[in-house]
Amino acid sequence: MRKSSRMKRFTAVGLTGAAVLVMSGTAHAASAGGLRASAAAPTCVKVTVDKGTISKTAYVTNKCSTTKRVKVVWSFAPDSDCNTLKPGQKFKTKRGLAPQFDGLALC
Fold first, then answer.
1. Count: domains in the chain
2. Which domain holds residue 19?
3. Looking at residue 38, what is its pLDDT?
4. How far apart are CA 98 and CA 76, in angstroms?
5. pTM score, two decimals?
6. Edge-to-edge strands of the sheet including 68-75?
7. Among 60, 71, 90, 99, which is least packed, fewest CB within 10 Å?
8. Which comes out higher in pLDDT, residue 37 or 15?
9. pLDDT tens digit string along 26-75?
């Protein structure tokens, strides 16, 4: 009988842990889905990302014929502010090494 009680406890703990993992995965997927809903910047807005010794820097240039409002999207770090770029204008944004460049979005 003692073995049966341990097995029940073990099963209950395992199921609870699995439920927590499923729920946290669902919440993460929902937040990531919201990010993908924003429109990507047009291809005439160019970006290069340089990896330095202790940081990553994204350099953005508007090579379009019209003004664009864009932001750099990072994973594992805050996105950049929205930047209004007239044709030919540039901006840069820097983050630590852990973040990954996820793209440019219109804002």
1. 2
2. 1-37
3. 75
4. 7
5. 0.64
6. 83-85, 68-75, 100-106
7. 90
8. 37
9. 333 334 444 445 799 999 999 999 999 999 999 999 999 999 999 999 99
Contacts of 48 (CB under 8 A, 6+ apart): 58, 59
Shortest CA distance to 84 belongs to which of 101, 56, 103, 106? 106
Same domain, yes or no: 42 and 24? no
φ, ψ at 35 (rounded to 5°) = -65, -40
Confidence band, pLDDT 50/70/90 cuts, at residue 9: low
Displacement of CA 42 from its chain's centroid (Å): 19
Same domain, 49 and 99: yes
Written in H, E and C, the secondary structure of the chain is CHHHHHHHHHHHHHHHHHHHHHHHHHHHHHHHHHHHCCCECCCCEEEEEEECCCEEEEEEEECCCCCEEEEEEEECCCCCCCEEECCCCEEEEEEECCCEEEEEEEC
Tokens at 42, concatenated: 């047009």
